[in-house]
Design goal:
The structure is a homodimer. By secondary structure, chain A is an alpha/beta fold. Chain A folds into two domains: 111 residues, Cobalt-precorrin-4 Transmethylase, domain 1 (3-Layer(aba) Sandwich), CATH 3.40.1010; 128 residues, 2-Layer Sandwich (Methyltransferase, Cobalt-precorrin-4 Transmethylase, Domain 2). In chain A, 28% of the residues lie in helices and 26% in strands. Chain A has a five-stranded parallel beta sheet, with helices on both faces. In chain A, strands 7-8-11-9-10 form a five-stranded mixed beta sheet, sandwiched between helices. Chain A has a three-stranded mixed beta sheet with strand order 6-13-12. The radius of gyration of chain A is 20 Å and the shape is elongated. At the A-B interface, helix 1, helix 4, strand 5, helix 5 and strand 6 of A face helix 1, helix 4, strand 5, helix 5 and strand 6 of B. Strand 7 of chain A pairs antiparallel with strand 7 of chain B.
Chain lengths: 255, 255
Amino acid sequence: MSGGASGGWLAIAGLGPGSEALVTPEVTAALAQATDVIGYIPYVARVAPRPGLTLHPTDNRVEMDRAAHALRLAAAGGRVVVVSSGDPGVFAMAAAVFEAMEAGPADWAMLDIRVLPGITAMLAASARAGAPLGHDFCAINLSDNLKPWTLIARRLALAAEADFAIALYNPRSRARPDTLDAAFAILREACAQDRPVLFARAVTTMQEHLRVVPLAQARGDMADMRTMVIVGSSTTRTIPRGDAAPFLYTPRSAP
Amino acid sequence: MSGGASGGWLAIAGLGPGSEALVTPEVTAALAQATDVIGYIPYVARVAPRPGLTLHPTDNRVEMDRAAHALRLAAAGGRVVVVSSGDPGVFAMAAAVFEAMEAGPADWAMLDIRVLPGITAMLAASARAGAPLGHDFCAINLSDNLKPWTLIARRLALAAEADFAIALYNPRSRARPDTLDAAFAILREACAQDRPVLFARAVTTMQEHLRVVPLAQARGDMADMRTMVIVGSSTTRTIPRGDAAPFLYTPRSAP
């Protein structure tokens, strides 16, 4: 990356779902040139320490502080990488950085800033299960930290009416043990009860676990903070394969 | 990858949007082990020839023949990579392979098959523009080759009602010069006229070109077959940056 007037730059990088084999060469190169790496503790832990590199691990829920810190370091000449898991543009740090930019000094918009995409969780989960997102689909963040539940409920109902396959990010947390069950209740009102639901936990890591159940049997406690949930559309199909989880795919055509 | 009983395997791999810096190491490793690479001519052209590797470039619109060919080669012991651009699970070859599997011999389901995810066009385009997909969003394929236009129109209207940011794949082709204008007409009925629309052509290649216009001024002829179109949600914002295309992002929170 080329430096701005200060020589500094900011890359907002996606580390992918977990496996190092899914980190793009572009991200690896940015990390090799960085003076500072900023992010949530478990993501910064994926970056190897080396001389000349300062790691800035921070707790969750301080996204705006983290984003402003990164912009200040880049403005001062740092070569800064903000790391997210998955893709930084999907429910992650990229939007937070642009929010901080708008709230900050006007010249922050002229910094050398690039978003480096990564393999987002829904695409990693989809790949491990087959191709459930092979036709039109949507992605909804189930966390109601930053939006009202009424909006989430409305989007779920409209997504079912549109017959999208539906990827649910942040389906459940300790603070929100009930949102995923509430989402399933909304979908059960609109969708056939045999609609396949994929629970894909910690994909591409040693803890990976895949499970496919019909919507009628889907329960919130089948997911945790590391689980991606994908609800098929009306055309999504399963292909049994012995003892392994079935393949799940959505055909390219729709009637 | 481990071989099945025949020693053969099939990987359905995503090459990303164009830049080699966005090809995952997992895909690079699969290509290095392959005996056969199968896909649409311009994607196979991205794979370097070498001794022991047979390239099988095929024309567009023969996805099912290509998929069945790949399965037959893997069943016969080949180490086969089917290549797509972007992510193979998003409007690409993975669904076609599973369709061919269901239509073929039952033991094809027991082959060693893996989908290797890639950076899909909407995430590459989003990254180059900022973070327009930073909140809930959907992806709709505008091609009516495999689904009726009435279904596409219905999904567009419901996506606008749900206030998703909307990524439009295959927005326009020579055979369909009018579908994108028809889509904009539907969205103009439901959305504010200043909603930002991103036209991102050939991202991460030498031909990359980004343009952001308000929905009122968006026209179908601003896109071609290599363009990704992303329509912002009601909360999507732009940040001017001199002569360059503005940053475009959707905040994490919604009212």
